[in-house]
Structure formats: C-alpha cells, structure tokens
Amino acid sequence: MDQLRPTSANSIALTPLTFLERAATVYGDCISIQYNNTTFTWTQTHRRCLQVASSLVGHGIQRGDVVSVLAFNLPAMYELQFAVPMSGAVLNNLNTRLDARTISVMLRHCEAKMLFVDTHLRVLAEEAVARFPPGIRRPVVVLITDNVSVGNDGTKDKIVDSLTMLSCVGSVKDVDCVTTYEDLVEKGDSNFRWIRPVNEWDPMTINYTSGTTSSPKGVVHSHRAIFIITIDSLVDWSVPKQPVYLWTLPMFHSNGWSFTWGMAAVGGTNICLHKFTAEDVFSALNRHNVTHMCGAPVVLNMIAKSPDAKPLNNPVHFLTGGAPPPASVVLRTEALGFVVSHGYGMTEVAGVVVSCAWKEKWNRLPVSNQSSLKARQGVRTLGLTEVNVLDSKSGLGVKHDGLTQGEIVLKGACLMLGYLKDPRATAMCMREDGWLYTGDVGVIHPDGYLEIKDRSKDVIITGGENVSSVEVESVLYTNPAVHEVAVVARPDKFWGETPCAFVSLMGKASMEELIKYCRERLPHYMVPKTVVFMEELPKTATGKIQKFTLRDIAKGMAPQSGNSSM
Fold first, then answer.
1. pTM of the entire structure?
2. What is the CATH number of domain 276-454?
3. The CATH number of the domain covering residues in 18-217
4. By the 8 A CB rule, do 300 and 465 touch?
C-alpha cells in the first residue's frame, strides 16, 4: 500500500462553511433565523451570506484580511459567521462588554480592515476608532442597523453620517467611508463563488482573551479546528436534526461555542435575542418551542431564581460551561424542565472539549447526588485526543483519587494555531511535550472524571467572562491614594463570582471612590464590587502578597446578590 497517496479528490480542506451549502439544499424552506418579526429560511440565509461575502471582496477584502464584528445576537451577527470567512477573510468577533480602549487595542493588533458595528454599540465603536493614532489605518465601518428605518427625521442617515465622518477624518487618504449591512446584502452577488481555504490549516477566526495577563491575546483557529469542534460538539451533546436553538450565549463568546456553524449542519432554527431578562427567556422558550440553549452558569442562576420561572411546555437541553454551576442551581433548573449538561472549554480550544458524559446508572441516584455529579466537568469529548491533570513538580499525571491536584492539560485537533503575533505566549501555553497547558487546577476522580478545583490563580470568572486580576490591580495602582492592592474572587449569588479588591492606602479614599475610579477606566464587569481596606496586606517571607490568604477571606464573606439583567 506504499504507493497510495492523498489526491486532489480526497484531500479537500475541511471547513464548516460547507455546512451552509448543505443546509440550503436539505432544509431550504425551513426557518433558519427568527428575530422579533424577522424570519429567514436556510435558502435565504445562504443567499444573503454569499451576497455579503461578494460585497466584502468588492470592497477590497482579500484572503487573510481580518474583519471584526461588534454586535449583539442579531441575524446579521449570525450571517457574518459564514459571510466573513466565505470572502477569504479571518473573522474577529469582539466582546461587547469591553471598553473602547481595549477594543481599540484589539482592532490595531489584528489590523482589522473592516468593522461591522451594531447601531446600539455605535458610541463604543466611535470611541474605539477615535483612539487610533494619526497615520494608523482605520477599519472601514459597516453599520448593522437592526431594522432601523429611515423616517422623515432621517434617523438612519444621521447614524451613518456620524460614523462616516469618524471613519474618514484624520485617517489615510484611501480609507473608504461606511455603508450599512443591508446595503452589502442588496448589492452583493448571490451567485458568488465563495473563497475556499487553500489549506485547512488556514486561519479562520481570531478571538481575544485576556487570560492571566493584562494584555489581550489573539487566539487564532484554523478551518480544520473549527470543523472538528463543530462536529464534535453536535455529537457530544446529541443534537438532533432541526433543533430550535435559543441564543442566550453571546455569539462573540468563542464563536458561540461553535454552534453558530453547528446549527447549519443540522438545519436548526436560530432564535435570536438582543438583550434579555429571565422573562424574555421564558417567553421565547414557550413561544418558539425551544429545544436547546447554551449559557454560563449565571444564566442558569437567573432562570432558577426568576419570579417568572414556571414549568416548561417541553424539555429544554441546556449546556453550561465556565465556573462549575452550584448543585442547588442545577437542581432548581431541572425541576422546571431543563436538562442540564456541563462542559469545560476555553477560547484556545474553540468550544467544549470535556463534558460530563451521563451514565444510565446515575439516574437511580437521589436527585441531589445527580446534581453534584452534573457539576463536574467530566471526560474528554470524541474530538479531543487526550486530557490529563499533571503534577507541577514531576510532570506526571496525578492519582485518580479526586484529591490530588494538578494543572489541566489538553491535546487534540481542535486546539488553536497559536496567539497572533505572540510566539512567546504560544510557546508557554503549547509546550514541546505536546500538551496545551490551561492554567486551571483540577483533580481526577476514581471513575476517570475530571473536576476543576480552582481556576487560574489570577483569573476571576464573572458571568462567564474572564477577568484578569492583574489588569484590575494595575488600574488601582494608578490611584495616588493606593499603596498596595490584590484582587481576588468573591462569591456572588448571581454572577458566580466578582472581583474583590484588598487595598492598603497611603492617602484617603473610600470604597465608593475607588469603585468609581475603576469604572471610569475598565469595562463594568471588571470593576470590583467590593473593596476591603487593610493596614497591610499579608505577605510571604520573600515579600510576595499572599493571595491564597485573601481568597480564603473573600470566600468567607457572605455571597453578594447581583443584578439579573443580561
């Protein structure tokens, strides 16, 4: 068999973009997207994506260029997950919870050629683009109008004009002015032959994560990795054909854990929500007969504690990830008719790669025991080659006793290509021993199931978003009244955990003043909700602040009650 080799017939580059073509053929007349009074079929979604991709190329977008998107879960946001890479470009979904400074840094770092902006975020976009230094090419801005109509008062024109002026003034002479998303759809070619990857290892997406450092890192994924994680996620979650999927998970969050492309693969219906409350969620669940949804534990918590909570008309499968959901929250949510699954993943692996695979015999256990089991992360999915927990000193796998802790490491085809323009950080994460080091601490139980015992030491997970304590500390250190500061996680009944700052002062400052100081310089979700003043922070013999002591203090505080609006 030595003479057998790959050929052009059997070595076509893997890409999830082909799922859309198939959906248009198999599920053409079925609903693809439902948003308020807007409805599209898979035939229409396929055509609209081709038209946008065609217009992108017509506006000068070339293979390998980066196109950024700053939008909530709108139909256009979903379409852009296909349209941007179909133009040959690399898709960069931006976190809508970030501040203008951070977004500006990301746009410059990835050298975005174009920026799609939700009208509801236009002020944030204006501030971000305005921060570009003179002479640095600004991205062309395209406005997603969210069904904004042009009335006698010229509302739509005013919005476009403000962004047009911003895009053109002070930039290099050949920068294009903005247009609107629907203009790109209308002017595009529905027969456009979309640009396939030359190699399945070609970059397809860039997602920024701050990780444990104060500077964001651009996680680059290939067409191959996204194809594999998408298929893997559908299989692991046992998603059937034509599910009805409710988008409460932001599509910018690791590309919706790959289910943006996954819904096309199975011909599902995407129910889009802009912003939502628990009342909105329950209304959508029953009105559209939703079957599946994803979200951070904070969404589970919001649902479980909502006064609008009532038994569902039909079971809804809920996949959650991030910080482990409290067993009590799982119990209350499942009592309403949700079927909760728990998984583990990170931006660097494009989705869920460890899940709590359920065993039939567990159904005979008391409900409280079942909820505790569901709070564990579980075992590797089929698409991941290997997962382990390594002892930091020996580098060997820890005992499967549920007690011995180590760092969680991963190996598989869905791992990132690396961090954009950061070979050092890439090498620190993806080491020569073949593992991706997550920085998360966990144990392995005797049955082989993984459980996270602590997140990376400096990372706080609030509402499913990672907060770098280093970044928060660096801001507080700029306040002239602050002498020393350390930021750790404090339990929160709604958000899971929130930043808690321990501060020693050299001047005068109140808790309210320091919180306001941070709010003016950080995204709101990164701002400490608690400030604890200490005469001196506890230190080791070498002078390092004992964060583990402060964590214990914060954990001993009564959990806070957060805001339930998403």
1. 0.82
2. 3.40.50.12780
3. 3.40.50.12780
4. no
